[in-house]
Amino acid sequence: MQITPSIHAIRHSFRIPIAPGVALDRFVYSFLIYGDTITLIDAGVAGCENDIFTYIRSTCRDPSEIALIVLTHAHPDHIGSAQAIQQATRCSIAAHHAERAWIEDIDLQNRERPVPGFAALVGGPVQVDHELVDGDIIETDEVLGGEMLVFHTPGHSKGSISLFLQSSRSLFSGDAIPVAGDLPVYDDAATSVQSVKMLRGIADIRFLLSSWDHPRRGNAVYYQMDMALEYLRKIQMTVLALSDEGVTDPVELAKKTASALGLPSEAVNPLLTRTLVSNLQTRGLKNLF
Questions:
Q1: Of the candidates 60, 77, 128, which has an alpha carbon nearest to the alpha carbon of residue 99?
Q2: Which domains does the chain have, with CATH numbers?
Q3: For residue range 247-260, what is the model confidence (pLDDT) as tens digits?
Q4: How many angstroms separate the CA atoms of 132 and 162, rounded?
């Protein structure tokens, strides 16, 4: 899908096994920025290199033109095919320094943050060639001559980044902005809220390009961020209310919260439990929203 003259979005569908015979249908986006070379933002799960290469060829470009992959964070649906793409193109890899260990050592990530089906989602580790920090500028070699500004947007993970391509006012937000009604995934509830609020403060965003939502443009950009903040507030209020009622067991708290939010009961796993329970740490924080 072409978003602007130089930005293309590719939607990857995949499945996550959550119980015997039961799997969640999920999708994730990768983004291409075309110039004299190609910059790829996120690599999807293992096997997505085929989708990416096929799409590039369909636009009369060649996969060998990929010079840089920017990974918004280290989770499996973002790094899964990075190794295969790097081996095919010899491109460089850039990511925040806080994500480096999990990108370069996928066994470490799987031990510290086990995800159902992890081994099938990640093709292998890659070395990070360029460590990114908040405020860095990436020269994208983009047709219209834009620079891409790096924002550190933790919460979903410690080293999550978002990227703002100034020439087209396009924000690549990774998984920093949750989708209202969808499964929430973050490590730190308060920091996630702060990151969304910071992104909401960027003026004149024309395109919102999230990894787990369809591309948005115009007025829908800020509306999506407002809905994300309202969703985060609703999650927090639900968790704290249940805690006040005496629900203290983490799994029971997650099950009751998921039910109140209308989330499927089969989705309550250690990852979702950790996300929801993190809201307990927001108790007493003033002016969070």
A1: 128
A2: 7-230 (3.60.15.10)
A3: 999 999 999 999 99
A4: 11
